[in-house]
Recover the amino acids of this structure.
């Protein structure tokens, strides 16, 4: 149970200036530069962080390479690595409220969601891969009798991880858990607008006993330190969650450097398909609203396209509108807030521009569409629903990453699938129906990495999250994520 008094006490504490973590030490940027960290809660400067240079990133990569080559982590027995990771998870849990409040002050997620989605989720993820690491076996190939074929699973080496601002701890753990469990060294590059909780989480890894140099973190601009990571000849694997444009650049950097493997979890324009035979339309409406408006719509799998069977269109849109208008938007550090702040002023401006474009293209605003609570100085937007969105409209094709829901009607199953698949994305989706056959057909036919049936969201770490089409490649979560962080080596032995 969250206690408002404890949250307020943590909010009142000043936030230290943050520096890089390189080779187990906190160091300033090589040129001494810093960047202001603006809180979206009130638009004020919260603290500063080091504004990294290419030289800073190169130093972090060198530290990670040295740590990997001398096997200070990879050479430890699995039981030892497990012990450290378990202690790290314990420390994250022990400091959960502090971490959550710090993160909310940095990125604006409502505290009720943040406490679960950030420290709680991160600790669970680290613990999951700690438990798994001594259960990853090599293989013996079915060879002829005078040959022994062994397949070893080795760490890849140095992993560069670029983390987004919406859920930095959760998504950071999705990368760090399997990468470190398999014995790799890692360099983190947090988002410029949400780095603080992830940097604090990295400190806790050292406290847990992770050797210096195994986990490094450099703050700064993607165009500088992110580019240096992407172009490095000494990074073996690059993992990224974020926009398609940045993902394309990272693939280009790989081609221009050492052909490092690049795994991308990119954008989505996820369809949430509601049929008239949904088992509980009232419940579907509430979940639909939460599936796009929680965290101010800043969720990669958000159900941002609502496809509704024509016979229930008006009724269902009205129910979703009631649910949206009942959600409390406001100070994300208040326990009764259900929708927090938009991450930055730039993101808020982009959201509002999408609404203007939708209107210009024939969309009808049912609710929202405006900035609110401007007197707070923070960045808040009313949950917005736009109807009459054609499948070709900008709002149906481009990811907003904000609290904006576009609604399109359909009449047949075939039309629903056609509309659902009519974007370049394929990250997530949902279908609401009482027809078991229809549900399975939708799972089969909608091109997406995750398909929800009679729910939206909530898939845990036991199942993979990955995209198809231009939503990326590779997966986070589950045992399948480990595959990104290992090399297969064959030993062919003549007996």
């Amino acid at each position: 149970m969250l206690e408002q008094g404890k949250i307020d006490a943590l909010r009142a504490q000043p936030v230290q200036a943050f520096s890089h973590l390189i080779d187990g030490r906190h160091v300033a940027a090589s040129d001494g530069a810093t960047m202001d960290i603006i809180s979206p809660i009130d638009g004020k400067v919260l603290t500063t962080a080091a504004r990294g240079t290419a030289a800073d990133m190169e130093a972090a990569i060198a530290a990670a390479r040295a740590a990997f080559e001398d096997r200070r982590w990879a050479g430890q027995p699995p039981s030892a690595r497990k012990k450290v990771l378990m202690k790290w998870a314990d420390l994250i849990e022990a400091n959960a409220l502090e971490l959550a409040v710090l993160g909310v002050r940095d990125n604006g997620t409502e505290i009720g969601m943040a406490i679960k989605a950030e420290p709680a989720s991160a600790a669970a993820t680290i613990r999951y891969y700690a438990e798994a690491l001594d259960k990853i076996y090599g293989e013996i190939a079915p060879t002829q009798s005078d040959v022994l074929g062994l397949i070893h699973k080795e760490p890849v080496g140095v992993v560069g991880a670029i983390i987004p601002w919406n859920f930095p701890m959760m998504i950071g753990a999705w990368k760090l858990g399997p990468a470190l469990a398999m014995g790799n060294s890692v360099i983190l590059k947090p988002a410029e607008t949400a780095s603080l909780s992830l940097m604090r989480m990295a400190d806790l890894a050292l406290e847990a006993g992770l050797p210096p140099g195994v986990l490094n973190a450099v703050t700064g601009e993607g165009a500088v330190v992110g580019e240096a990571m992407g172009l490095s000849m000494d990074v073996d694997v690059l993992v990224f969650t974020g926009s398609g444009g940045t993902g394309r650049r990272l693939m280009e950097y790989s081609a221009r450097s050492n052909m490092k493997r690049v795994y991308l979890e990119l954008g989505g324009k996820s369809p949430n398909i509601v049929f008239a035979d949904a088992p509980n339309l009232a419940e579907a409406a509430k979940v639909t609203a939460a599936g796009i408006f929680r965290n101010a719509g800043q969720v990669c799998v958000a159900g941002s396209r609502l496809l509704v069977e024509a016979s229930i269109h008006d009724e269902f849109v009205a129910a979703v509108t009631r649910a949206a208008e009942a959600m409390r938007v406001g100070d994300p550090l208040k326990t009764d807030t259900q929708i927090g702040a938009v991450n930055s002023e730039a993101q808020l401006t982009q959201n509002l521009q999408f609404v203007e474009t939708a209107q210009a293209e024939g969309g009808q605003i049912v609710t929202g569409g405006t900035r609110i609570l401007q007197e707070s100085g923070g960045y808040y937007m009313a949950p917005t629903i736009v109807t009459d969105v054609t499948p070709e409209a900008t709002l149906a094709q481009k990811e907003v990453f904000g609290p904006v829901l576009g609604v399109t009607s359909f009449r047949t199953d075939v039309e629903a699938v056609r509309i659902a698949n009519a974007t370049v994305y394929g990250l997530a989706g949902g279908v609401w129906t009482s027809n078991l056959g229809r549900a399975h057909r939708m799972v089969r036919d909608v091109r997406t990495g995750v398909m929800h049936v009679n729910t939206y969201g909530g898939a845990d770490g036991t199942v993979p999250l990955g995209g198809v089409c231009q939503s990326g490649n590779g997966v986070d979560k589950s045992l399948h994520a480990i595959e990104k962080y290992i090399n297969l080596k064959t030993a062919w032995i003549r007996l």
